[in-house]
Batch of 3 targets.
Target 1
Amino acid sequence: MRVGIGYDIHRFVEDRPLMLGGIEIPHLMGLEGHSDGDALIHAISDAILGAGGFDDIGHQFPVNDDRYAGIASIELLKKVHELIQEKKFKVDYIDSVIILEEPKIAPFKERMREEIAGALGIAKDSVNVKATTQEGIGALGRGEALAAYAVACLKIPKSK
């Protein structure tokens, strides 16, 4: 078993849809980013990449590469999955937490789990998505940004 941790933070901006966990969530603002800004998917991708011994998502999909401008982050997660499969690793479990004041994501967590699990070819019960607030403290608490943490557990191939 190998374990990796991921973290990402993005500012809220106007005139952009809020993409989180691979789905669009109704909100007045979206997340700034070169891709669709999905901080949860970015944190999960970094956790998987770390567990697999790869460099971070910014190295894999650089912001100066126009191929990734505006790309759906769930597509990047699929590419991350392909990378770890080359090493014969398999995602065993993902645990994540989103830190935000609004919107409330409880109504969307199951769909997020389904999207993430589908991108990784694993069962929905192998993906956990939680949320908490910053209790009004700092930039996250003022609703200026959203952050996400993720932990990924990978199964490694058995030695012969």
Note: The mean pLDDT is 96.
Target 2
Amino acid sequence: MRFENKNVLITGASSGIGFASAVLMAKEGANVAFTYCRNEDGAKNLQAELEKLGRKSIGIKTDMTQDEEVVGLAEKTIGEFGRVDALINNAGGLVERMPFFEINRRKWDEILNLNVWSLVLLSQKIGENMKAHGGGVIVNNASVAGRFGGGVGACAYAVAKGAVITLTKSMGRELIPDGIRVNSLAPGIIDTPFHEQFTPPDVMQGLMKNVPIGRAGTAEEMAQIIAFLASDESSYLTGATIDANGGMWVV
């Protein structure tokens, strides 16, 4: 029960890694606030799972590309829970695969806004609450794309996730005097709706050839790492990124 009497906010939790993380942390005692955008069915399913576990929970529909909605999310979560012990910045996405010569300013800004700026803004608002209550933990979801440059058509996404990795280092160093630890997870190819939406079968086959472990990871495996990073078990870690990619990319 690593999260007994703890309050957690997880963005992008209506499916995949966010969903699995919410369920796992609730099983271990957490009260959970979570966000969703378009996947209302997934949000309802998660809400039902959390209610079965007897935890306090709240689902907040949020467009993470809209500043006012991100600020509202922070205010609603703090209003409901009072104190936020852990923030899991999981929301993000490729938005659209675009060859390098077709990238335009509008799409570039949209992808960077979703994957980087929304994370910064929410971390500021929730971080202020953590600071006032003696500290907390922030976990950012990066990607192996930020390590090796991403697949075909994922240039902007790879740049954004590379920024998340660097941002984690900066936040980890700057916020630790306030008792706030910041780390990130960089997943490899994970079996979630993300790839069903953005990765054609032929592209997926090409990517899988570069995974020595021979399979995609699971959302539940990633949730275990996120829970570790959000718990006191990782108390000496800050500014670090854990690479979980089946050997696809190693230092």
Note: Residues 160 and 226 are 20 Å apart (CA to CA).
Target 3
Amino acid sequence: MSVTWHAPDPPPVIPRAPGHWRRVAWRGGRIALVIGAGVLATLTLRLAERPLHGAARPWTQPVTVWVCRRVLAILGIAHAVEGTPLQGPGAVVANHVSWLDIFALNAAGRVYFVAKAEVARWPGIGFLARLVGTVFITREARAARAHAALLKARLAAGQRLLFFPEGTSTDGMRLRPFKSTLFEAVRALGDAEGAARVQPVTLVWDAPEGADPRVYGWWGDMEFGSHLIAILGMLRQGRVRVICHAPVPLGADRKALAATCEAAVRAGLPEARRGL
């Protein structure tokens, strides 16, 4: 059964101000150059990094952070980090609003995303996801042990793994219940050195003044291409706040751990969104 979330109201229509296509071409062209430079640098550095450091990416991960910061700057979206991002290996969990979350979270620090296996097969996006070290998992219960072993190996390499416990993206105006499935794998990592913690992170996307507050949200059956073009062509942009909460010790109960992290993420949302 699909876990895709569908809003009760249709997505917002983002108006096209004069100069829309000029902004699309100008911003899109520069973003393509930045991503292309990042891919070339990563492929080149990885040739020496892989045999020397294995799964660890001390050289290429900073390239990913730089690319994501540049993309947000080119778009004109202000980016602010509140609190202290998790240091060392561990897990990070966040609410999921948009494809833009990838840039906002990577720009805040070095993290490796945990994504569904289907993403690896998406044209273009799958290649980029594999290139930056994304961990791909399936929803099959029989694969749980293999997933736990894979995540533990990544943590042993000093990585910080990030996943979206809602299991779907929303319009940014609400928080869906956290699914506890992946928390079981995270909880099992408590015996890995330095990994006995998980940090909840709240993403708050603020639309520019006068725009629909859901403008950055990407959910349901919305087309990626049309939403990308709409964001590229916006005359004025808003901001994203990455709110890092205190790390939570890994407990014995995955459901309790999921509930604790959900409460922390919800507390970081603007008051009007907390009850939704």
Note: The chain has eight helices and seven strands.
